[in-house]
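Dear all,

This email documents one entry for the complex benchmark we are building for the journal club exercise. For each entry we list the sequence lines for every component of the assembly. Then comes the predicted three-dimensional structure of the complex as a token string, followed by one or two observations. Please use this as the template for your own entries, and keep the labels exactly as they appear.
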Amino acid sequence: MNKTVNQKAWFFVIPVFVLVAFNAIIPLMTVVNYAFQETFGNNVFMWEGTRWFKQIMLSERFHASLGRQFLFTFIILFIQIPLGIAIALTMPKEGVGVPVCLVLMSMPLLIPWNVVGAMWNIFALPDIGFLGHSLNALGFDYNFTQQIGDAWFTTILMDVWHWTSLVVLLSYAGLRSIQPAYYQAAEIDGASRWAIFTKIELPKMKKVLTIAILLRFMDSFMIYTEPFVLTGGGPGNATAFLSIDLVKMALGQFDLGPAAAMSLIYFFIVLLVCWVFYTLMMRNEEKS
Amino acid sequence: MAKVTLKGLSHSYLKTQSSDADWAIRGVDIDWNDGGAYALLGPSGCGKTTLLNIISGLITPTKGDILFDDKVISGLNPVERNIAQIFQFPVIYDTMTVYDNLAFPLRNRKIPEEEIKVKVHEIAEMLELSSTLNNRASGLTADGKQKISLGRGLVRSDVNAIMFDEPLTVIDPHLKWILRSKLKELHQKINRTMIYVTHDQTEALTFADQVVVMHEGQIVQTGTPVDLFEKPKHTFVGYFIGSPGMNVLPCQIKGNEVIVNGKKIETHQQIKKSNFHKTEVGVRPEFISFSNEGIPVKVLSVSNTGRHKIVDTESETGKIKIIAKSNEDIPSGSAFLKFKKEYTYTYGDSWIIE
């Protein structure tokens, strides 16, 4: 069948194009602009080519913050995904417990990022905070403002508290969508609880878990406000993740060129990881 | 392989029951012989799936006992009851191959791998799944998947009964025929008790030797397909089975005379008592013919199905359908109907008067 060719149809694309241009392409282009040039203000630019990219790629500071970023994201995924699934499995399936649990679970998700940071900052203060004071009273030498390990521990705990609920809610939705007949068939087939989990529940949750992992990866990889309010990237640079480092470079030191180059590299890493992960998950899906 | 007996079985999904409507099933008694093919037939919501799940042990009944081979098994779980069940839509383990799917119930029972291999190949052969044994089960079509569900029930050679819960719902019409005859063939081959739940009379009547018709949680009649057709014990069986269903007309009983529309008619039974709230006469369209005298009616319309004609007529107390031969002349306007005495029954409060 031949398709009708009508070039006027392009006009229908214009509104979307304009919208996308204003909210994504144009701002991104200014970043691209800075990434390849040097400026001293007054709208005077000098072409620098790939100099800033080379500088960033070779900078130890960037390697260090990228390393911290991957470590942080890996740790929180490693904790939040299994913990989220485990909580979802133990949640009630019917009765008044369901709305109660769902509301309780959604609470942390509703709190603004900087409030979470501020809350945990006060909560963890070694002298007056409930967490900090209790830990010290129990004999632990805890001070997240001075000790690197404590700073990481607190940041991770805060992120787990804030975001595990998202994994729980997604997993719970996935679990609830499994037809009762699957459980009944498994019961009749004599499957153990573990077999039900690995052969029915996990495969059926695959899609929501893919979404959960992607969301948690992106969010944690771009995390800024909470650690900024909690530790400010410290002690030293110990919790200066990519975005914190980026803001320091762009607004603290006013190194606009290197900061723009770093933004682009940062953006491509997020894009690349998401694309590879999603493609791998979906390729398996097509095979079946 | 077992004889299945249900004694005074009642079940309610509510904690307290105030009226009959609160019971999903009530007062069910059944005796099913070892190796028979039985169907539970009824409309949606009549309790047939509940009854099936009670037999398989997925639901614990509120009252009554379930016996396999005269041993009470009410307290046992589905594994201990050793039954197989096939559900409305195919249940397969997505991530496993067809082979692993079929082997799953055996592996859970710690049967040696060599024995599993023999058994799985035997069943795959029977269900024509041999060529797909190494494929991922999730890639199969709906009927292929349903065959796997069936196969998982058949691999265990010692199951007491195999239960089917509307297993052909999601299967394409042309494959329904094939799978249905496959089931019948399997039943003859392996000779195990099979219980088949459906709302489709054709499925029930072709599959089973004995059909149990359920209505509002009760068994209204158990019998062979011919019994259900020729002698419905409840007006519901009359409507539900047959196409079109039985004609049911209000009647008066005076002494031992049955009067419909002011005319005395002859019925199959001798009427002994008549203290009912509601009395009716039931006769199937197949057993009514036009005559020179009898019940006066007005002929409304005639539709020819090819094999026969369905005539709609109206009498004083309700519509009457008649099935006539396709070459028969149908009177127009007023006519008289004669009911065949042997197939005309009187019903008191919907139940046959005997």
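Observations: The longest strand of chain A covers residues 37-39. Chain A touches chain B at residues 179, 181-182, 184-185, 187-192, 195, 199-200, 203-204, 287-288 (CB under 8 Å).
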